[in-house]
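Example with several molecule types.
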Amino acid sequence: MSLIQAGVTSAVAIAERRRGKLGQSVYAGRPHRVIQRSFFALKSSTWLGVVSGFVEPVFYLLAFGLGIGQIIGNLTDGAGNPVSYSQYIAPALLATSAMNGAIYDSTWNVFFKMHFAKLYQTMLHTSLGALDVAIGEISWALMRGTVYAIGFMIVVTPMGLVTSWYGLLAIPAATLIAFGFGSIGMAVTSYVTNFQQMNWVNFFMLPMFMFSGTFFPISIYPEPIQYVVMAMPLWQGVEMVRGLMLGIIDGALFVHIAYFLLMTIAGLIFTTRRLTALFMR
Amino acid sequence: MSDLKFKPGQAVDVARAMRWGAWAVAEYRLFSMSKWMGSMFAFGLGNPVIYLISIGLGIGALVDINTGGQGINGVSYLQFVAPALLATTAINAVMEEVTFPTMQGFVWDKMFFAMNNTPITPKQIANGIMITATVRGVFNVLLYELILWLFGAVPVTSLLPMFITSLFAAVAFAAAMMSVTVRLENDDALFAIIGRFVISPMFLFSGTFYPLDQMPIYLQWIGWISPMWHSTQLGRFLSYGMPLETWQLVMHISFLSAVFVIGILAAYPKFESRLQK
Amino acid sequence: MTSDMIVAKDLKKVYGDFVAVDGINFTVKQGESFGLLGPNGAGKSTTMKMISSVSKRTGGELTILGKDPDKFGPEIRAHLGVVPQKDMLDRELKAWENLYTYGRYFGLSRKFLKPKVEELLAFAQLEEKRNEKVEELSGGMQRRLAIARGLVNEPEMLLLDEPTTGLDPQARHILWDRLFRLKEQGVTLVITTHYMDEAEQLCDRLIVMDKGKIMADGSPTELIKKYSSKEVVEVRFGTDKNEQFADEIKKLADRIEVLPDRILVYTAHGEQTLEAIVAKGMNPVTSLVRRSSLEDVFLRLTGRTLVD
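Resulting structure tokens for the full complex:
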């Protein structure tokens, strides 16, 4: 406390606010400053590029729901009731929307900030800690994911694809999904050192999107493969949102929630460690 | 620094340098690309194979159950989507070349400006890019055809004609896309926007997953103007004999030729003005 | 007239309504080392691009190696070596691969290039870095690599745009020495710079440019003789006091320039003039007697200092 007792400037006092508290070496209690920086950056970026992120799932919904839906007819939901093909894929695409929003920001954008803009070096030269940066950046990814999910809901609700009031809970569920993906995405990205490795993120994303019970039930696979799919985060998200939008609430919901909470915490821990190791040697 | 001794101005054979300019550009691009060979094929083929399995087999299972295996054009769903997936593979392979690497040459490392300091002309640079794109297309189309054939999605007799049509459509598309890229001052999320508003709808709404005329009429125009649809129609005609009138054949081929010619004509002058400002 | 490498008559370049180069005339002879000197935005780089035969002129005449660059760009470029201001190296390729691929643009054979690349790596002192990617090289190494690349086609004329910007002093001196040796072998050098010492070291003849026009031309010595005195005394009295001593000092010198931070006193005998100033009871905080340089020429011509 000697610095504060010496009566130096208030700026230092603010910077040292969390001195002596738990985790002071990595956390200064100001992740919102990191978020604020993202807002400033957003204002000067191409808004169409940011906003348009949610249209891709909408296109998939139109293309598959309208076209293939006619050929396929109805499927059955978890409780055995018939649902239209559009109703079946809409929740999956909402979960994908949230995932995409979070992943765009937490992978490619973070990669550029780390390796080209050297943004985190600069931030960590101030009194911000690695955890501030991690939470700030992941929250930003989470907000983007949530906004995409809301956009998607605004499009699909008038189409009659949300059949239950629980459907409203799909938005916080999407936030949770975005949090999980944002957190893991940033953790992975912080370990990536070049472009070629970054491409593997995309390489992993597409099959996950196509095979996680998004467009057809996973019962189509042999049993061992079904377990692999069930371990994938997107499948967890898809099932969570699907249950809510179709009004099927059961114990599985809590498993999905627990899955994403664990994913989020693991991501935060690894990101903080890595940023500390990289920039605070 | 050791000394360097030479007689100035003797080394270069000017005529030879001028004649092979475009090939020198292509050689360089293929050379630098060879370092990412593995991941290039993984991405170039990985994605379409995933679509083949998830859509062709996964959704195909649902479609075929519902329609007794002859839902569309009287063939299995896998056979129906295979030509469309081939068209996508070809277009994606060439597009890789005319987007980011082309932008890089102008903006990020400015290699095109360095090339232009040698006898190489802007037109030759554009041609070099097109040659490279074509080479990438050739490899990806051949490999993907092999995969389609192994899955029993296309007959062996259609492989050569489909190779030609899908590659031609892709090259036409590359020319058009190149003429767009050369006009972009910087990336600025534009490729992401083009990806979402042009490439992705083209993939989804070009009669890829079901016949175009089953789309609502207000979405069908996307197919009409997309090289992807024209390529797919030709592929279906060649693969399982989907009926096409002669005028339709002529129309598809003319459309693709027009895209190619317009793309090239729009690209050349901009390459020149941008490099020789 | 084969000995004229460059002939520019009333050469002009206009971008929109901005006149970058405003009707300049100069000739560069074979084997000469020619400098374009001026501050940023003077039109040096634009002139350089026209000489490189990549940028078309808006007006006037230009002949490079006896040919019109607007019509014979590729032929001319085959005999030029260009070292651009921004290195424009392929960052993802290794050092040797950059040299090799660039050589291929000139249609040079693999057989020719194999030993050539090694020779150039040695010239640029990059033998040990031959297998490093460009992005892993330091700024100075990248600069040397870009210069080596400009020599791959054994050019008749080497064009260097700000060749030593960003190099440390030792590296600059080594580079100057190498360029001098190239010149001895008959390579014509054209150099843009805003470093006066560089122009004095390297150039037989130079033009001083400002705002697209030529302010003066001649050899460094001629220019100094014509536009400056033999020696210069720099005195500082402190920011506010410089002005007040100016009038007094003026009487003791051929000419003075009052800058915000110091006064430059132009005279044939620096030490004597400084003694005279002190004798008058003016005691500068710091003082320096030096030889007159191109910096002084530029100041005289434009009334401005050359700032980085």
